[in-house]
Each structure stands twice: as C-alpha cells, then as structure tokens.
C-alpha cells in the first residue's frame, strides 16, 4: 500500500499533537473511537469565550498513519475559526486534502466526529445547547468502502 | 554499507540464493527442452535436471524421489492434497480435521470442500498456538479421512508436535497431511519419523524461486493417492499434469540441497540474532511476544507493542525496515489477524503486532539498525497515542467515557 505524500508528511511531522487542560472552562474535549482499539481520536479545542473563536487545537490519535494525518491536518484548519464554522467541517474535505483511498475514509469521518464532540463538550460546559449534525450520508455510502 | 529497507519479512518470501540462480540459468536458454521429450538430447538434459532436483527435494524431508509431485507452489499443493484426498477417499468418508490457524490455502480450500459436501472440524488452539491432542482424538469419527495440521505457523512461528498428532491419526487409520511450507529447510522435517502422509511446501520460502512447490505423497504404508485436480498429459504420476517448469525445479532442488547442508548452523545463527532483537524490543514497556517462545522456528518473532497501531508502526519505518503487521486497518471495522485472535489476543494487542522474520542474509548490523528504528517509532507513536497517555495516568481502559458521535 502506498500513501499519499501529504499523509506521510503529517504522519512524520504531526502538527499540534499534545494535550490541553481538560478541566479548563475554555477547553472542549472529544474522545471518539471506531472500536475500542481501532482508531481512537482525542481532539481538544481551546475557545475564546467572548468571540467563540478557536484559539488552539490539539490531538492525540491511536490508529494507522492516515488517522494520525487526518487529526493533525484538522488542528491546523480550525484554529482561528469560530466553533460554528468548525462544526461544519466535512470529512470529505479531509479526504480530498490528503488524497485518502476509500478504505481510509473512516479515519476522516472519525476526525470529523472528534471535532464535533470537542466543540459540543465546550458548548455544554459553557451552558449552550449541543450543536446538531446536519449532513446526510448517502444510502450507498458504506458500499463505497473497502 | 546497509541496504535499506532492511528486509525482515522472510516468512512472506525469501530472496533467491545466488547459488540457486546459477543453477537455474542454463535451463532457460541452453537446456530449454521439455522434460517429457524422450527422444532427443534437449529432453534428456531437462529430464536429468528434474531427476536430480526431485532427489534433492526428497532428501530435504527424508522422502523417496518418487513421492515428490511438483506443483506451482504450496497453495496448489495444499489444494491438491485436500481436494485430491476428498475425491479419492469419498467412499471412506467426508470428514476433514484441521486447525483454525492454518494458512488460507488450507482454510479456504476446506470452505470450498464444505460446499461440496465435506464436513470439516476446525480445532481450536491454545495461547501458544497448539491444539489439544485429546480434542483431536475425540473429533475423529468413522467418516474422518484426513487430519491436516501445519508444521509451523507462518505468523507466530510456533511448531506443532507433528509426531504426536500423526500418531493419533495413525491410530485411527486416518491420513496425516501437513503444510510444511514454513518449516521445510528451517528445521528438520522427516516425513517418515514425523508420520506425515502428505506434505505441501514451496521453493520461495527457502531461497528458491517463486512459482514452484511440491506435494509429498506417501507411496508405502500406506500407499496414498490423490485425484488429479489438473488433467492433461499425465505428468507427475498422473497427479499433476502440465509441462514441468524445469529451471524453477532445478532451482528448487538446489535450494533444498543448500538448506539441508546449512540448516543447522543457519538456525543457530538466526536464533541468536532473533533473541537479541526480541530481548532488546522487550525492554520497551507493555510489549509482548505472541505465541510459543520455546516451540518456535529459529528465525521468527511476533511482538505486540500495546497502545500503538501496527500499520502506523510500519509507516513509521517503511523506508528503514520491511516487515508485516497483524493489523488490517483498511475498513470501518477491520479484523486483525485471525491467527492472533485464535491465540486469544484481544483486538488491542492483535492490532499492535509486528512479525519479524529473519533470513539467510540477515546481518547483525541490520538487527541493530532495526532495534533502533522500531524503538524510536514505538516511542514516537506512543507520545501521540491517547491510549498510552491514559495508561500512563492509570486510567481504567474499560471505564473510558466515549463521546457520542
């Protein structure tokens, strides 16, 4: 199996790997997994409480190289975005940016889930309603996977 | 000068030994005859090469040359053994006993035969990859025609007590088949002492060419017959038709001859390097050897590095070390190695496993390089693994609160 150059780049030099203070009022944490020991992503955002702009983002990921690259690239993207904008992140943007093969799309979906879980954790912590997912999965989506 | 990546995937295939290549070359352009051509010198030269190779291959496993049926490889030999016995012994019964950690060439052939009316028992193995002899004995019925147990496992290198297994089969008048692909040329295999009636193996696992293998079929006590699965000119005593691949057969023979001569010394050398590699990697925390450490091929080590994923590890040193992982992170719910699962490994450890397979050309320098490369990658990936962080903080993994998504 060969991997896209960009996956390797993010895998070899992961941006923003690390941990934010989970107990901080301004930090939202999302911990998601495919199954317990296949692709586990912990995504964290630190949000400006006044502007709701994401000041910092960190990840830690257990999974294949693609999963690590997905998490890492998204930390770069969402810094400077509002939590509303970041919530609308579509996993297909990650798939395209990293040229992921169909068999690795689940890694991008998991990252999307992790970002949303982190944002909702922040929202709930700060007395807001959790945001709802809007996107629809095509009915034949799963057939496209490996 | 180290050539990168270091090749430690010798259970998948081995490089051709230059001495084997030298043996093969004249049979492509100079002695290109058909070994079945009985009336001219080209045919005789080819036939002589095949005869010599048949003796060399037979000698490696203590067989008679007449008992060697050349095939395209171990997969074909496995197919011929199972399907051939199933057809030939249909009057006696339809029951085959095998194990759940066999190679896919055995397991998928059994599945195929089940569709044709076979009844197959897949014996479970313990954490070391060994079957229970009592379970084997109690699985045998009046309809049982074959017991098929691999000599050594391709993923963990565990060696089965074939003599004890074949003794059980013999006691009940059942044929004993063994896929000896990983064992042949690595440890002593003797079809008579081991009580094997049919044995499948290939050349490319023992420094021979790809595309050639053999099925050993016992001729005496008992005389075993298999129904041909490839019909045609009646080659190989009618059991496998098709013009013989003379250069590959000559190479297979040479490879077997070299293996027989060098096996003992090579085994000791590889075991010492394997142990050095294994002991160095076990210095890392939460690292485990999979399968038996005592009944094991000298050149194999299968290790799980908990809290890092196997495929990510391979990506980490892809340019430095070439090996295999028991992980298969290619779908939404990937299944890790069925062999490791059969040993009772949890998904976590199965997904975190790497198989190191040393070979004839592995050097001490390569082992040192590998120890450093693997250690560095494991440490680097653990630094960005949430599971490792939780483990270090003493979080109970079973009590993790997952976000809804």
From TrEMBL, chain A:
Example GO molecular function: iron ion binding
SUPFAM superfamilies assigned to the protein according to its UniProt record, in alphabetical order: SufE/NifU
Coiled-coil blocks: none
Stretch forming the signal peptide: none
Domain NIF system FeS cluster assembly NifU N-terminal: start-end pairs: 3-127
One BP annotation, GO: iron-sulfur cluster assembly
Name recorded for this polypeptide: Fe-S cluster assembly scaffold IscU
Species of provenance: Chitinophaga silvisoli
Lineage: Bacteria, Pseudomonadati, Bacteroidota, Chitinophagia, Chitinophagales
